[in-house]
């Protein structure tokens, strides 16, 4: 499955903390070269090395030695030539003597060219830091260019580097303390268009500093809607008074893509695949970001990153087949708790506003209605209302099985709701007679008549009781349009509309284990094990569920993955397929994924009219399809552009 990832907007990068010796540029150059070869074998196109990495950060007064300065310049010249041989880009740190001053600089090198030299803006000079003893700050420079072996090279912190072969992706460079300052240069760089920020650092360790460093990098990448690469010096630095750990971090839009092991003497490469297309899409969608104005003007230096085929099928970034469900159990529990409380508070607020002490909910014994009931119970408890005000109605029809009916009735009784059992069979048969349906043709009319009858009952009982109808439909059903228009599509408040199907099951399981005990827990866990079905068609000869939703519309694991990539990540069809093949390798083959992806796009476009008139309901996560919130789409938009891209895919 080896493939050039760049065609899908990915760029493989490396933040490197190489083994090094203080004051030995020749040794350090060898280790940099070794790191380059190791990264190239993995398909890396851009490398970032630590601050003053060619000399060592802790040289002290040795920085003034002309021999050390010359050796660093020779090492840079060697790397410029090496970059031409290897067709790569890298940023390394070294001192630079220019205009009678000494600067702490980052050298941006690409494919045989020294593109530019960026001096450090903020020089720390308190506590353990003495940088102003040796270096001048960027504000002290009087040169915009330096003479490098007869060639004029741009010099200054006002440089940005544009990758012309990556849709003009823009790269900015800052050095260590620049990020820790009150006004990091990266903020202005991002406002000027830089979407990848590179930080060459030599950050010593102290108790708790690593956590702060991680938070700083993550938050900066989130604030700037960018990728942020942080490469720090390792234990090879002098330990006279300080310890350096080689901490490297790569974050993208607040998400940690990769992080190095600390406290290792040997070379460490931290690799990740940046999603440049995603960052571009995020910035287009974020209105406040586009309103920002860069605090300074920048000179743009063009270059080419070049192509490199990945050595393996692995995508070096987190890629979960269940993007709405965290993998770690502790994080999953925390997320479930947060979601459940968001739903509960939203419903409680609506009940307070309408002065409602009664609600009506259709209880089927399936996952969605179960979650809605659990949320309703907790909302009533939060408001101090009697659970007797919850009217749970189970409405057995032609497809209802004993298992789901039994679970629905047991759950209502165990939770203290007022249970009503209203069969819809006679009413639906009368309706069939009224409209001239034979009642034996198991078509869409047969199914939807039952769904609409149930909704009518719920609405009418709500009128009787002076209460609200609580909707049970989830986000995945809304994406696929898997709901009956003016049937289960409609309610007076839809508590599950922001929760995708893959997450509903985990929420019910979480409730079973944390919010409820004994018999209630047993019933909830059995509901989790029940096949997903609307139960609108008759059961099989053994009385078991015959109509299974996923047999008709496809696996919800796939559809929730598609939904996340299309709506949240703004990924085009070919990229969604590319990612799905990797996320579901060994579970679904390419042909299956492509088949259900076509179904997803067809349904997502054709069913927008149902989402255009949704009842109120709370936004829960980063994906919402409410026409009043995150998603606005014409109901008659054509899917042809997206489907035609899928036709070009070879499984």
Strand content: 15-25%
Biggest sheet layout: 7 strands, mixed
Label the CATH architecture of the largest domain. 3-Layer(aba) Sandwich
The poorly predicted ranges are none
Helix count?
21
Descriptive overview:
The protein has 651 residues and is an alpha/beta fold. The protein is 39% helix and 17% strand. Strands 13-12-11-10-9-8-15 form a seven-stranded mixed β-sheet. A six-stranded mixed β-sheet has the order 5-4-3-2-1-14. The radius of gyration is 30 Å and the shape is elongated. The protein starts with 9 loop residues before the first strand and ends with a helix.
Topology:
Layout: E1 10-17, H1 25-41, E2 46-48, H2 66-86, E3 89-98, E4 101-110, E5 113-119, E6 145-148, E7 151-154, E8 159-163, E9 169-175, H3 177-180, H4 185-191, E10 196-201, H5 209-223, E11 227-232, E12 249-252, E13 255-259, E14 268-275, H6 276-285, H7 287-291, E15 299-303, H8 329-354, E16 359-362, H9 367-383, E17 390-394, H10 402-414, E18 418-421, H11 425-435, H12 444-465, E19 468-471, H13 475-480, E20 493-494, H14 501-514, H15 518-528, H16 549-553, H17 556-568, H18 573-583, H19 590-606, H20 608-611, H21 640-647
Question: Summarize this, please?
Answer:
The chain is of the alpha/beta class and 651 residues long. The chain has 21 helices and 20 strands.
């Amino acid at each position: 499955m080896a493939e050039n990832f760049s065609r899908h907007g990915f760029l493989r990068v490396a933040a490197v903390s190489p083994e090094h010796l203080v004051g030995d540029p020749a040794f350090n150059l060898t280790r940099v070269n070794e790191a380059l070869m190791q990264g190239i074998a993995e398909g890396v196109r851009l490398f970032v090395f630590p601050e003053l990495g060619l000399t060592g950060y802790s040289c002290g007064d040795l920085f003034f030695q002309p021999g050390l300065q010359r050796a660093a310049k020779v090492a840079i010249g060697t790397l410029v030539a090496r970059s031409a041989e290897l067709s790569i880009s890298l940023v390394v740190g070294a001192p630079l003597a220019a205009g009678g001053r000494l600067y702490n600089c980052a050298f941006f090198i690409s494919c045989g060219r020294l593109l530019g030299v960026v001096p450090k803006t903020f020089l720390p000079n308190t506590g353990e830091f003495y940088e102003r003893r040796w270096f001048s700050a960027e504000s002290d420079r009087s040169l915009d260019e330096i003479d490098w072996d007869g060639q004029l090279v741009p010099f200054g912190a006002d440089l940005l580097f544009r990758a012309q072969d990556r849709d003009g992706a823009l790269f900015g460079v800052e050095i260590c303390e620049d990020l820790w300052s009150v006004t990091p240069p990266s903020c202005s760089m991002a406002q000027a268009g830089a979407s990848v920020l590179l930080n060459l650092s030599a950050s010593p360790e102290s108790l708790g500093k690593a956590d702060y460093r991680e938070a700083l990098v993550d938050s900066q990448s989130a604030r700037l809607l960018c990728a942020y690469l942080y490469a720090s010096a390792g234990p090879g630095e002098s330990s006279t008074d300080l310890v350096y750990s080689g901490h490297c971090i790569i974050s993208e839009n607040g998400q940690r893509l990769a992080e190095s092991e600390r406290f290792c003497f040997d070379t460490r490469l931290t690799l990740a695949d940046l999603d440049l297309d995603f960052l571009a899409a995020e910035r287009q969608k974020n209105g406040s970001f586009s309103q920002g104005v860069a605090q300074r003007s920048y000179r743009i230096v063009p270059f080419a990153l070049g192509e490199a085929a990945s050595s393996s099928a692995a995508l070096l970034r987190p890629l979960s087949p269940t993007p709405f469900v965290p993998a770690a159990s502790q994080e999953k529990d925390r997320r479930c708790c947060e979601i459940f409380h968001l739903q509960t508070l939203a419903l409680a607020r609506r009940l307070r506003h309408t002065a409602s002490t009664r609600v009506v909910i259709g209880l089927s014994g399936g996952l969605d209605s179960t979650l809605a009931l659990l949320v309703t119970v907790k909302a009533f408890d939060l408001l101090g209302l009697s659970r007797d005000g919850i009217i749970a109605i189970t409405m057995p029809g032609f497809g209802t099985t004993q298992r789901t009916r039994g679970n629905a009735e047991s759950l209502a009784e165990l939770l203290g709701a007022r249970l009503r059992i209203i069969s819809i069979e006679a009413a639906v048969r009368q309706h069939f007679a009224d409209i001239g349906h034979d009642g034996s043709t198991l078509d869409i009319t047969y199914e939807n008549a039952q769904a609409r009858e149930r909704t009518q009952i719920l609405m009418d009982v709500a009128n009787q009781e002076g209460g609200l109808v609580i909707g049970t439909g989830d986000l995945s059903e809304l994406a696929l349009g898997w709901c009956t228009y003016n049937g289960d599509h409609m309610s007076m408040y839809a508590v599950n509309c922001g929760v995708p199907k893959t997450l509903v099951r985990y929420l019910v399981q979480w409730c079973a284990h944390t919010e409820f005990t004994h018999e209630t827990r047993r019933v909830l866990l059995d509901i989790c094990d029940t096949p997903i079905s609307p139960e609108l068609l008759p059961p099989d000869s053994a009385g078991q569920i015959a109509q299974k939703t996923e047999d008709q519309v496809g696996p919800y694991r796939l559809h929730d993955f598609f939904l996340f990539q299309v709506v949240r990540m703004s990924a085009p069809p070919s990229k969604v397929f590319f990612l799905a093949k990797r996320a579901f390798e060994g579970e679904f083959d390419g042909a299956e994924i492509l088949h259900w992806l076509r179904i997803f796009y067809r349904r997502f476009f054709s069913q927008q009219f149902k989402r255009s008139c949704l009842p109120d309901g709370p936004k829960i996560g980063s994906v919402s399809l409410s026409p009043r919130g995150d998603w606005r789409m014409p109901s008659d938009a054509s899917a042809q552009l997206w489907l035609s891209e899928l036709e070009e895919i070879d499984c």
